[in-house]
Write a structure and sequence with these properties.
Elements: H1 5-18, H2 29-33, H3 38-47, E1 50-55, E2 61-66, H4 69-76, E3 82-83, H5 109-117, H6 123-142, E4 150-151, H7 152-169, H8 177-187, H9 200-226, H10 234-240, H11 249-280, H12 282-290, H13 295-306, E5 311-316, E6 320-322, E7 325-327, E8 332-336, H14 337-340, H15 376-391, E9 398-399, E10 404-405, E11 414-416, E12 418-420
Helix pairs in contact: 1-3, 6-7, 6-15, 7-11, 8-9, 8-11, 9-10, 9-11, 11-12, 11-13, 11-15, 13-15
Bound molecules: protoporphyrin IX containing FE.
Protoporphyrin IX containing FE is lined by residues 76, 102-103, 114, 121, 258-259, 262-263, 266-267, 270, 303, 308-309, 312, 365-369, 371-375, 378-379.
Amino acid sequence: MDDGSIDIQRAARAAAYGMPVSEINPADPELFRTDTWHPYFERLRKESPLHWAVSEEEDVGGFWSVTRFDDIMAVDTNAADFSSEPAIVLPDPAEDFTLPMFIAMDPPKHDVQRKTVSPIVAPNHLAYLEPIIRERAANILDDLPVGEEFDWVDKVSIELTTMTLATLFDFPWEDRRKLTRWSDVATAAPDSGLFDSTDPEQAEQQRRAELFECVDYFMRLWNERVNAPPGNDLISMLAHGPATRDMDRMEYLGNLILLIVGGNDTTRNTISGSIFALNRYPEQDRKLRENPALIPSMVSETIRWQTPLSYMRRTATRDVPMHGKTIKAGDKVAMWYISGNRDETVIDRPDDYIIDRERPRHHMSFGFGIHRCVGNRLAELQLKIIWEEILARFPKIELVGPPVRLNNAFVHGYEKLPVVIPTRT
Ligand code: HEM
């Protein structure tokens, strides 16, 4: 499919190398909406591996960017010098609307809250979830139209991950799309098209109002579960866990948003990314269909190649020297996983999508250190199942137009992916 992307990439390369390096702002969402971020990060890795930029977006202000694989690893595994408080995204929380969540906490509170929800992804619970997810994946795929264009993001990626999330929360089934909406609203930019107004203040008011609806809804579920014996869903775990049972309303909302966004957008965008990548690299699609045993390594390669969360932010707790510069105490630092995953000194041919790499799990998409993704095995499981079921049904899934990408520097993904399934097996 020729979507003009080669010309776009050529122009992006000229622009990225034509400007003074000091002017590069890697957090510009436009780079992600237009999929032109590659040459900017390539240049930063080579010429400015610790890079200062100032972003006007959402009052971010000045921040450091770390773009090489080994440097990202060093920051991510050093929680003492690089705190996750007050936020893991570049904008600071609004003073009048702070949502505490354990991804944005340091030890010891982080550790005990993380431990409270960890049983949800214990091997025995994943084994329990596998047939449930498989049955749903099969139903979703069996209902897809054949020979007719549809949006893969909406009909498959969102549907499957929302169903899984509803199961993790034991959430009322008929209302499950509310989870999708809250997940989108929590991270969307004011001009994303999700809000009634693109005016930042009005969009923010709407976001808050919808998130309050979210916590009110979940409060009812909490009240039911706290009076029942402990169950193996996330709400019950939070309501009964000694480290979480006394959370106030905002902390409950914060942790809910963490679990909703963590479990939803990321996996959704990986499922979409797998369709996009296998269309862009048809020889990899053939390889996969000839040898379905490659599914697990294809899944990991997609998670690397897509990098569903472009970065995580830290805040320096003391002055830290790096590459001849000094990160000052209080400075914001973005660890660009999306760039570390393209570091040519660590990963061979990093821009290429190669489903049978020797070490497919050698990537940064789940982070490292004490905050490493809790749900990584669950994400991989969902991807593995959907692809086993796809291969059993469809000889081809054809991308029939350019994807619409998110206008977002944090969540790296797709809004729409137009496809046609020509025939069933
Ligand atoms: C491909 C899918 C996914 C990707 C790429 C992803 C990525 C990430 C990343 C980058 C982090 C932060 C790591 C760090 O700071 O070092 C994280 C943390 C987290 N993820 Fe995921 N995630 C995915 C799926 C999931 C799923 C399915 C769940 C749901 C259970 C989940 C729940 C979480 C939670 C709760 C945290 C916070 C962990 C902590 O602070 O200790 N994630 N994830």
